[in-house]
């Protein structure tokens, strides 16, 4: 598995592609920026797309919807979740 | 009742009140993205939309950009009535194709034609009556009757109505701004004027 910084970079590229954030570049997204409302300004449909992305690209299923609030707080928290669940 | 403004998106052009405001040799999505940039539409949700909603967002933006009195329109008095031939076929096919791997929620939400009304209404905070009709061709008589009825019954004071369709990645829109208040400019709101504006050829 790649290191966390490489994973963060890949996640940013995948999120831009999957969520059609064509006006954004990976460097526009801070590792700790909030993904929803302020920050990247994602909405509830985007949250569903992030769940699909986790499943499609990392074969990780969220255990429940509430878990998403913590997992999708930022790119950094997403990367931590992926590293933790890929290792198990 | 007056048609106070009209916007046509067709054959690589965006035309407002008979003046070409954007022209490009690009087609489909590339044309809409180029129009978005050139016309400074400035609405970040644009890139997430399907082609039908992108077309509607650009047409509505051009239709309303110069209006300084938008804030004075009561949301409940402002509505939309649109029509087309192909419903949301482009988004439907895209969703079907994507679903062979993983169903995409972001594609699924555009698999109804009236979503374009929702996108425009969210942006401008319109809360009035709305409807989306399917017909073979632009039915000016029906559009006139339906919108005039809403206005005569005071259900709407302002209405964006017209035709918006995308098939084979070819966007086409003709949106009319119809207002109940008397106006010194524009055309009388009649089926004949709707038809005449819709049918005007602005070349390629």
Structure description:
The complex is a heterodimer of chains A (88) and B (204). By secondary structure, chain A is mainly α. Chain A has helices at residues 4-18, 44-58, 65-71, 75-87. The model of chain A has no long low-confidence stretch (mean pLDDT 90). Chain B has 204 residues and is of the alpha+beta class. Chain B has a single domain (2-199), classed as Thiolase/Chalcone synthase (Peroxisomal Thiolase, Chain A, domain 1, 3-Layer(aba) Sandwich), CATH 3.40.47.10. Chain B has 7 helices and 8 strands. In chain B, strands 1, 2, 3, 4, 5, 6, 7 and 8 form an 8-stranded mixed β-sheet that branches. In chain B, α2 (51-64) packs parallel to α5 and α6 (140-152) crosses α7 (191-199). The model of chain B has no long low-confidence stretch (mean pLDDT 95). Classes of the chains: A mainly alpha (88), B alpha+beta (204).
What's this model, at a glance?
The complex is a heterodimer of chains A (88) and B (204). By secondary structure, chain A is an all-alpha fold.
Return residue spans of chain B where pLDDT drops below 50 for at least 5 consecutive residues.
none
Question: What string gives the helices and strands of chain A in order?
Answer: HHHH
Helix content of chain B: 25-40%
The CATH superfamily of chain B bears the name: Thiolase/Chalcone synthase
CATH topology of chain B: Peroxisomal Thiolase, Chain A, domain 1
Roughly how much helix do the residues of chain A carry, as a percent range? 55-70%
Task: Report the sheet with the most strands of chain B, covering strand number, pairing sense and barrel closure.
Answer: 8 strands, mixed
Total of helices of chain A = 4
């Amino acid at each position: 598995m790649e290191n966390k910084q490489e994973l963060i970079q890949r996640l940013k590229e995948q999120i831009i592609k999957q969520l059609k954030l064509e006006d954004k570049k990976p460097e526009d997204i801070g590792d700790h920026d909030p993904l929803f409302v302020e920050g990247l300004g994602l909405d509830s449909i985007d949250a569903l797309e992030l769940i699909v992305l986790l499943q499609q690209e990392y074969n990780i299923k969220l255990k429940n919807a509430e878990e998403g609030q913590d997992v999708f707080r930022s790119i950094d928290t997403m990367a931590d979740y992926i590293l933790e669940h890929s290792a198990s | 009742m007056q048609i106070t403004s009209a916007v046509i998106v067709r054959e690589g052009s965006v035309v407002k009140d008979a003046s070409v405001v954007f022209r490009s040799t690009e087609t489909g999505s590339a044309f809409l993205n180029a129009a978005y940039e050139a016309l400074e539409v400035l609405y970040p949700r644009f890139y997430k939309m399907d082609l039908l909603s992108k077309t509607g967002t650009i047409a509505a933006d051009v239709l309303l950009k110069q209006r300084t009195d938008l804030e004075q329109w009561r949301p409940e008095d402002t509505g939309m009535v649109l029509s087309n031939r192909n419903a949301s076929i482009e988004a439907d096919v895209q969703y079907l194709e994507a679903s062979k791997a993983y169903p995409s929620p972001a594609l699924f939400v555009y698999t109804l034609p009236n979503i374009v009304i929702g996108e425009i209404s969210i942006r401008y905070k319109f809360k009035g009556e709305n409807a989306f009709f399917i017909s073979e061709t632009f039915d000016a008589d029906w559009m006139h009757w339906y919108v005039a009825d809403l206005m005569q019954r005071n259900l709407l004071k302002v209405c964006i109505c017209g035709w918006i369709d995308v098939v084979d990645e070819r966007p086409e829109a003709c949106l009319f701004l119809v207002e109940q208040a008397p106006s010194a400019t524009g055309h009388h709101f009649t089926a004949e004027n709707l038809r005449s504006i819709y049918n005007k050829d602005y070349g390629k």
